[in-house]
Amino acid sequence: MTTGPAAATRPRNRRQVIVESAGQVFSERGYHGASMEEIAAAVGISAPALYRHFPNKYALFAACANVMVDNLVEVIDEWPSDAALSDVLLALTRVTVAHRASGGLYRWEARYLGREDRRLLRTKFDRVVGRVTETVRREYPLPDERLRAVAALGVIGSVTMHHTSIAQRRIEDLVLRSAMRVAATDPTTAAGTARLVELPAQPVPRTRRAQILAAAVPLFARDGFATVTNAQIAQAVGLAPSALYRHYPGKVDILVAACLQAAELLAQAVDRSLQRASDPRQAVVALAAAYVAYCFEHNALNSVAEAEVAGLPADVRRPLILAQREHIAVWEQQLRAVRPDLDRRQARLLVHAGFGVAVEAGRALRWQDSPGHRDAVTALVTGALTR
C-alpha cells in the first residue's frame, strides 16, 4: 500500500486518467483481448487500485465507450442554434482529434455493450447527428441532409481509425475541409456509377471448409469473434463441434480465412474498376464506387475484417496489414494525381476519411442495397476526397 509523499502525488483526476488509458488499450486490443491487469499497468497502478474505481472490466469499458460521445454532446450544446456549420464541425473535429487514440471504440467494439448501454450510446449520437443535420439543412438545402450530416461526421470520426502522423492543426484543417465538402455535396451527382462497378462474386460455399466460413462470418459480425463459440458455428453448418477441427485448426483460423477473403475480394474489385478509368479523376470515382459497392455487397465480411484484425496474433495479422497498406497505396497514388497539393500522409488521411464516409453513410442507410443508395454514398465519398 502506498503511503507518505507518494500518496500525495496521486492525481485528482485519476478516474479520467484510467478511462483515457483504458480506451487506448481497448482500441488496440479489443474488449476481450484487454485485461484489467494490462490496463492497470498502462495507468501505472496496481490491479486492486483499478478495481477501487471500477468494479469490473465491463464497467470500465462502458465508461470508455461513452467518453467521445459525451464530449461531442457537450460541444454541441455549447454552440447556439444559428452557429455556422464550419464552427460546429471544427469543434467536433478538435474533440475527436483530442481523443484520437481511443475514440474509435464506438464504431466496432460497442457491440459488446449491453442492450441498454447500446441504446443510450445511440441516443447520444443521434443528438449530435440531429444538431449537425439542422445546420447542414440551413446552409446547404440539398437532398438527404441527414445522410450528408452523418457522412460529414464519418469524415471526422475516421481519424480515430488509423495512426497516420500529421501535425494536429493540419489534421484539423484537412478534416474540416473534407467534412464541409461532404456536407455540401449533392448525393444525386453520382447517379449511374453503381452500374459501372463489376464486383467479384463471393465464392459459392461448395466445400465443407467454405460452408464453415460462410456460416461463421455473419455470426462474427453480429456477436463479435470472441463471443461466438465453435459449437455455434458447428450448429449453423450442421456439424458436431469436434468436426470443425478437420477443416480449421481453431476458431482464429476461421477468422484469418475471412479476413484474407475480404482482402482478396476488395483487391479484385479495385483492379476491375480501375481498368475502366481513363484519367485520374475517373480513377478516384471508380475507387469510391468499387469500395462502396464492396461495403454494401459484403457488409458482414467487411465489418468482421475491419473490427477483428487488431485482435489477431502478430504473425497472422502481418499479411492482412500488408494487404490493407497495398490497397490504401493505390488510393493514395490516384488521389495525388488529382490533387498534387497533397503529400502522401495527407492523401492517406483523406483516403481514410473516404472509408469513414462509406461506413457511416452505409450504416445510416442500414445497408439497404440499391443502386440509388450506392450512388449517393459514392458521391459523398468522392466529395470527401476531391475539390
From TrEMBL:
Coiled coil: none
PROSITE patterns per UniProt: HTH_TETR_1, HTH_TETR_2
Superkingdom as given in the UniProt entry: Bacteria
SUPFAM superfamilies: Homeodomain-like (SSF46689)
Known DNA-binding region: 35-54, 229-248
Keywords associated with the record: DNA-binding
Keyword Membrane: no
InterPro entries: DNA-bd_HTH_TetR-type_CS (IPR023772), Homeodomain-like_sf (IPR009057), HTH-type_TetR-like_transc_reg (IPR050109), HTH_TetR (IPR001647)
HTH tetR-type domain ranges (all copies): 12-72, 206-266
PANTHER family on file: HTH-TYPE TRANSCRIPTIONAL REGULATOR RUTR, TRANSCRIPTIONAL REPRESSOR MCE3R
Name of protein: AcrR family transcriptional regulator
Biological source species: Micromonospora echinospora (Micromonospora purpurea)
